[in-house]
Design a protein that fits this description.
It is a single chain. By secondary structure, the chain is an all-alpha fold. It has one domain. Helices cover 78% and strands 0% of the residues. The protein is built from 9 helices and no strands. The chain is globular. The two termini are 28 Å apart. It holds the Pfam family TauE. This is Probable membrane transporter protein. One of its GO terms (cellular component) is plasma membrane.
Length: 251
Amino acid sequence: MDLSLSLEVILMLTVVAALAGFIDAIAGGGGLLTIPALLLANVPPVLTLGTNKLQAASGALAASITMIRKGVIKPQRIKVAIITAFIGSVIGTIAVQMSPPDLLEKLIPFLIAAIGIYTLFAPKLGEVEAAPRISEGTWQKVASPLIGFYDGYIGPGTGMFFALGNVALRGRQIVEATGAAKVLNLSTNIGSLIFFILGGNVLWKVGLAMMVGQAIGAYFGSHMVVKGGSKLIRPLIVLVCLAMITKYVMG
């Protein structure tokens, strides 16, 4: 399926995707920009989610490659989480195409507010490793698929959930947690995208154009993570959370 969108609108969406890719690579929450932009361009909601996954996958891929090459994260250490997050996103994507996501939409502002408050007030958040609150097995087999389901069902803020969950529950350093979040987010994006494609809910012309912008933004954003560390990530997470809450409150 395709819609008639002007070249100007597609270029605007590509620029928005570049900015979203930059923000996503650092703090997550890029969907806060791309999803409203697609809706503003009169793209139907389910097509918006599917097209957003197409462009988001390229950003997650670019950020993941950078993180792996820089040695921030080794995928083999989180291979179980990669698989379970993928499965969770597939289930969430099938569910969102079969039912209205009213319940999760009501919960999102509270979840995001909790992340913002925790990030703002937690002392030395992710600057050094801390004692884990749950086992690695519980994180990879329970928390990861739950976040994956959320990504397939709704999406915005998934990167923050993966990163901050790894910091809060596993005691990881925030740069390492952010690197892992990019790889896990790539897995959930791919899982979700496959089933949006099977459902015929992707605008290819728009999505492919946005992929270019997303990949460029993610490339530069992931390099900023490696250079800036927790000093850069922490304030951006708080700002993104504030922006997302504002968006949901304002409707």
